[in-house]
Design a protein that fits this description.
This protein has no helices and no strands. By secondary structure, it is largely without helices or strands. The protein has two domains: about 45 residues, no CATH class; about 40 residues, no CATH class. This is DUF1540 domain-containing protein. It comes from Algoriphagus sediminis.
Length: about 80
């Protein structure tokens, strides 16, 4: 199963820091989306061992090679943010 960004408020440039929508003026969450959705211009794409959920855990696919700055095909986000 592939992981994809959703067209939701967390990825929308109209989201304020206090989780209110600049367009509608209401409090929203990651479950909301609307026709005025505008994708944030820049998403963080920092995929390496230190941002991997499995880094330094038993379920790491490459425990003897894993190191800061390295990437692998088994990377999993330790936190998703845009």
């Amino acid at each position: 199963m592939a992981i994809r960004l959703g067209n939701n408020c967390q990825n929308c440039e109209n989201l304020n820091g206090d989780n209110t929508c600049k367009v509608h003026g209401v409090e929203v969450s990651s479950h909301y989306t609307c026709d005025q959705f505008e994708m944030k211009a820049e998403l963080k794409d920092d995929r390496n061992c230190t941002t991997c959920l499995r880094y330094e855990r038993e379920d790491c696919a490459n425990p003897t090679h894993a190191a800061p700055g390295m990437m692998c095909a088994s990377w999993a986000p330790n936190r998703a943010s845009a």
